[in-house]
Amino acid sequence: MTSAEHVDVLIVGAGLSGVGAACRLQERLPGKSYAILEARDTIGGTWDLFRYPGIRSDSDMFTLGYPFRPWKDPKAIADGPSILAYVRETAAAYGIERHIRFGHRAVGASWSSADALWTVSTAHGATFTCRFLYLCSGYYDYAGGHVVDFPGRGEFAGDIVHPQQWPDELDYDGKQVVVIGSGATAVTLVPAMAPRAARVTMLQRSPSYIVARPGRDALADRIRALLPEHLAHRVVRGKNVVLGTFFFQLLRRLPDRASRTLRDRVAAQLPASIPVDPHFVPDYNPWDQRLCLVPDADLFQALRSGKADIVTDRIARFTPGGVLLESGRELPADVIVTATGLRLVAFGGITLTVDGREIEPGEQRAYKGMMFGGIPNLAWCVGYTNNSWTLRADLTSQYVCRLLEHLDRRGFVSCTPDAAGASSAGRPRPIVDLASGYIKRAAADLPKQGERRPWMMRQNYLLDLADMRFNRLEDGVMRFGRAESPVPA
């Protein structure tokens, strides 16, 4: 039997969050040993998994990028390959690769209070032990996206593709394409596929709010031309954080006015043949679901060109030659892209046990949006929904480093949010507090947040920045423990 590999910190996931966590750990705690378990055979996570045409960020790269490694590309809204290259270059620059164990999918983790140790098993039988377990694999299910079993699916004579499993060999040149969906993936695919396809139709059951913004940040370009690189990065990042927070609060506090403004801006960019109502009039308030970003108004350019169209209707069934709608209209199709959403999974699908007690993710309350009542020495990295993922991911990594420093300084071996405090935090709410379909489908299986701090996950970087960097670690909720017995080295 192969002996377990032991490290101080075990990170799960070598994507944007995991690489950032490793960089912070090396920076703050250079004496700590660590390893990264990566289920796939390469660095990049989501940005390597998704290969569909046009994949890009829906946040600006000055905040989606790392604060310690300036984004140098002139594109503020970047394409997937550029982001993937940035993550991999960062890993290379900081020497992260030698700590990654590729092809190691973590499937189980058990905590022993007697040993103050996590034991983590992988799918192919390897075992690791660690003092602290940091889950940085996000909440997307890498095994596959959400698939709708449309009636008649088996009758369709063409190709049916889900964006999460995009085949490299798919040929859509000169073909009729129907993209089913109205979210970020759909509004990305339509303008990306339109130049090569004969025609692309975005078929949506209900519309989303769409915002167009320039792909380059002109003010950021001027700032970067005037200031040294790292200072310019900090200034632009700060500017975008403040503006993003301001506009989010404005849209949430004035939903009626915000709705009208967003619709009016869309209407001004549509061709006369496409009315704003019903295609761009959602039945919810802005930020009840995430806004869809279209850089350089590329979706509207595709609609104006005549190579793309939008239809708002419900699907009756697939036919051999396309999609029959409940209105009776049939959309011809050679290729159907089912951009019907993602599947979410807690903790990367890892089965957790604490002293032999199995943890049910859906029953957990999140402390500061990252740790859980009664679960020692474990953090889950989850980003913002209203801003760049990395903003919160980096704050979480810095907080984890603060905790580890505190444990060492005070001679503790464990830190555990008090489970009793979680039960008094008010009614449970989804940790991802949006009304999107893919979130509602997974809500019961994901951890919850409460109504009061520290059991409430705020969507506000500025408030979280002060909390996670400066507030007391010994806050009366976090419990610190000393060794119950000799601990393995």
From TrEMBL:
Q: What is its EC number?
A: 1.14.13.-
A GO term for molecular function: oxidoreductase activity
Give the UniProt keywords, A-Z: FAD, Flavoprotein, Monooxygenase, Oxidoreductase
Q: Does the keyword Flavoprotein apply?
A: yes
Q: Which Pfam families match?
A: FMO-like
User: What Gene3D superfamilies does the record tag this protein with?
Assistant: FAD/NAD(P)-binding domain
The name under which this protein is listed is NAD(P)/FAD-dependent oxidoreductase
| Native organism | Amycolatopsis heterodermiae
> What is this organism's lineage?
Bacteria, Bacillati, Actinomycetota, Actinomycetes, Pseudonocardiales
